[in-house]
Amino acid sequence: MKNKLMKEQDMPSWLFLLLRYLLILLPFTYVLISEPAVSSVSSQQLYWLLILLYLSLLEIRRIMPRLTIIGFIGELVIAMWCMQHISVLHSFFIAASLLAIERTVSPLTLRMMLAAAFVAMNAVLLSDDMAWILVFNLMLTLVCSFQLYRVHMERKQMQQQSAYDLLRGHNYELEKAKQDMIQFSRMVEIMAQMEERSRIAHDLHDELGHQLIRLKMMMDASVEVIEARPDQSKMLFLQVRDQLSQSMELMRATVQRLKPRHFDVKSYSLKRLVEEHQKDPISIDYSISGRPTELYPSMEITFYRNAKEAIANAIRHGQASIITLHLHFGAKHVTLDVGNNGAVPEMIEPGMGLQGMKDRAEALGGRLEVLTAEGITIRTIIPLMGPT
What we know:
Blueprint: H1 2-34, H2 41-63, H3 68-85, H4 91-99, H5 107-124, H6 130-224, H7 230-258, H8 270-276, E1 283-290, H9 297-316, E2 322-329, E3 333-340, H10 352-363, E4 367-371, E5 376-383
Parallel strand pairs: 1-2
Antiparallel strand pairs: 2-3, 3-5, 4-5
Helix pairs in contact: 1-4, 2-3, 3-4, 3-5, 4-5, 4-6, 5-6, 6-7, 9-10
């Protein structure tokens, strides 16, 4: 692809090369055949020498751009001498020299060369027929206009390429900054998890440990009064049973939160949320659409908590048996729809759960929508670039 592009860019250079050599060879051939000024052998030899020198200067200027001005002056001198002593048709030589100007020439140098060509040609044609003067000036004007336009377009293309390279560099820096921010957010999340686990360890010691000690004391008391006061002993046993259920629930939740996780498994993944409800008597369908991209941890946490709250509400209030989670990645927003087939109330009163979901979405510049077209759907919309 790159080679094809280079060939397409080189095609105009080949056309310029062909055109300027035609502007040299056609007048040269015509003069060599029909002009009496080069009829003698010595005149022809001098003419050939001048033409070869002129072509050499063109090639030297093309190969070594540093010698552009020197080569151009030499070409003007040869063209002016040939116009003065052989034929005015050598004005085409000046047009060929102008077409040979390379793109590396500065705009100021280009204008100076074009002005020098006009002055040189008109100085030689001053005593000739006015018709020839008009024709050659028109030709030179077209060539000069073409060169100015070509240089302008090439410089504009170079500026656009520079602007594109600069923009691409900025995009790379922004992408790198985004990745660094995401990595930093991951580290903050890991540190928060470590602090949370430390707090849970203290809770286990302070709450669950003390509660187990209290339960043991209640069991001892119930054993002592089981014969004298069986009703009181039974009541103590029932209290111990209820408190044991609470302790078991606390232990289960704590173990679930402290359970070791693989590094590549996200703590607040929607897929993990679906897996947590596999043993529940409900069916949860999870799907993704659009072009998935990596989300900031704050967005993942918001989607996770909103989905968890929506599932809990669907089970508790709507007695739903089927729940759908659909995450859509749009061009500017990420949308999470949590739908269910539960009962739709006549009026939805926003409680603490819905208000918490709304606050989490708005904290990231998003919004929360409640749809009741077919069942209840809780929609969380968060912009990809964060708050706006």
